[in-house]
Structures are given as C-alpha cells and as structure tokens.
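Running log. JK asked me to keep both predictions on one page so they can be read side by side. First protein, sequence followed by its tokens:
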Amino acid sequence: MARKPVKAKAKPARGALENKLIAAMFALAEEGQWSELTLDAIARKAKVKSAAIPPRLRDRGDVVLIWAEKLAAGFQAQGHGDSAPLQDRVFDGVMEVLEAMAPARAGLAAITASVMRQPVQAVELLMPLSHLGRAAARRAGLDAASLTGQAAGLGLALLIARLMPVFAEDEPGLGKTMALLDRNLSTALSLLSLVPRVFG
C-alpha cells in the first residue's frame, strides 16, 4: 500500500506572526525586562522559532516599529470637515491615536519608565513615534505630502513623546493626558504656522 505524502505544516501568516511577537514584547516589557530585552527572548515568549522571524526584524526596536506601523495604518484623513478649527482637529487626531495605543498602555508604561532611566534607549522609538505623529496629522486632515503636513507629522511625534509619561500612567478617561495636550497644543500649532512663512 502506497504511503500518503506527508503534508508540510503551513507557515503562519506574516501578520499573525508579527502580532504574536508584538504581544510577547509588550508582555515582557510589563515584567520589567525592557532594558535587557532581546529579539530571541521575544521569540521564545511568543513561541516563534528564530528561523521564522522575518529578516526585517533585527531587534526589539524593529518590533516596536511594526506595532507603530500597524497602528498608524488604520488612520486615514477623515472625520473632520475643513471648516473645523485646526486646533480641534489636531487635538482629536492626537487623542484618537493615543486611544488606539491604550491596549498596549501597560507595556508602554514600562518602556517609558526604562527610557526615562536610560535616555539613550529613546533612539529606538524615533521611527515608531514618527509613524504615530503622521497618523495623527492625517487624522487631523493635514496633507502628509505637503511641507506643512510633514512638519506636522514630526511635531506631533514629538508632542506624543512629551505626552507618553503622563499617558502611560493616566486613568482610563485620560483626563491628565488631555489637559497636558491642551496646554502644549497652542505652542505646537504656533510653530507649525511658521513653516509656510519660512519655506513657502
């Protein structure tokens, strides 16, 4: 009797594998392991074989970047008419991005605390923050291709970084985060308004 061919196990879809690595990364960060966290440790926690890790993932910073890319991809320029004041649109855009980050807040709190102790770690967060800033700018209806839109993305990335320590420890309603955003928004928009004058 002929033997039936053995079917090879199907490889997990890339998106599902990345999601497992992201969840494992935040879980380990919550356990206080961020400062020494390696990609191998993340893979072990996620029960993912090293050979299955996509080549683009070289360290924990790349896993944070993929998380930010996935989150940012869900934000398109919508929800506000051009008639709405820019300050309101930007405020809402930033808050919507922060609210989307909420499921990872415990892990982000641990990462933020580690970065505040060792500021050199902040380098790993520059690209992820850039994606989040551009997402907030798109949500506010700013043209990402324009000079003003690009400046807004960078400025909102820095603003989100400024909010992170408060956001990470805030209550579910994010009242303290909103208050800090409100206090910093006028300055951010004033600087943004200079872009067309300087480069226009």
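And the second, directly underneath as requested:
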Amino acid sequence: MQKLGRVAHDKRRKKSMPAFLKCKVSPGVFNHERSISIVTSDGQEVLGFFPAQTIDEEKQLLKVEILETRDNQCLIRVPGFPSAAYGFIGITSGIWVLKDTLVL
C-alpha cells in the first residue's frame, strides 16, 4: 500500500519509434557530414549537422526516433549522437514537429 503524500514513479522508459523526418539537405563543412534544415511544429526553421550515413540525401530524409505524440505533433530526436559536434543548433533535447513531416 502506498503512503499518503508519496508519489509512485514508473521507472520504465517509454519505447521510442523509428521514423524519418523530411528535411532540406545541403553539404556540410566536412565531406562526411551534412547540413540539414527542418521546420518545427510552430513553424520555426532549425538547422543542424549530422553524419551523412544518418541521412537519405536522395529522398531528403533524416533518421529520427519518435518519443511522444500529441494530436498532430510528434516529439522527435536523432538517435545516437550525444556528441556536441552533431545535432540541431541551439537544441539540447527533443523537437516538436508536425506528423505530416514524418515518414514511418
């Protein structure tokens, strides 16, 4: 039985879902990286740099994980890049995007 005043926390992590995010791809500073731009759910353009292998240049898609879904929006992140060398400029956590910018 739970004592009053204490909150039970679920320590299980929600499982993320793989997807691809539509983006504009440009050459990066180095030949092994690409510059991308995306549009957030509130219409802001966000720029970032990612390794070329995470991007389908022909289809203009970035590999992402969906962390959460609300109405017509999804919270996404790019998996596996804790390095400060890669990521979206000025973004340290997930980004909300519209569902129609994702390919499942």
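Observation for JK regarding the second prediction: The chain has a mean pLDDT of 85.
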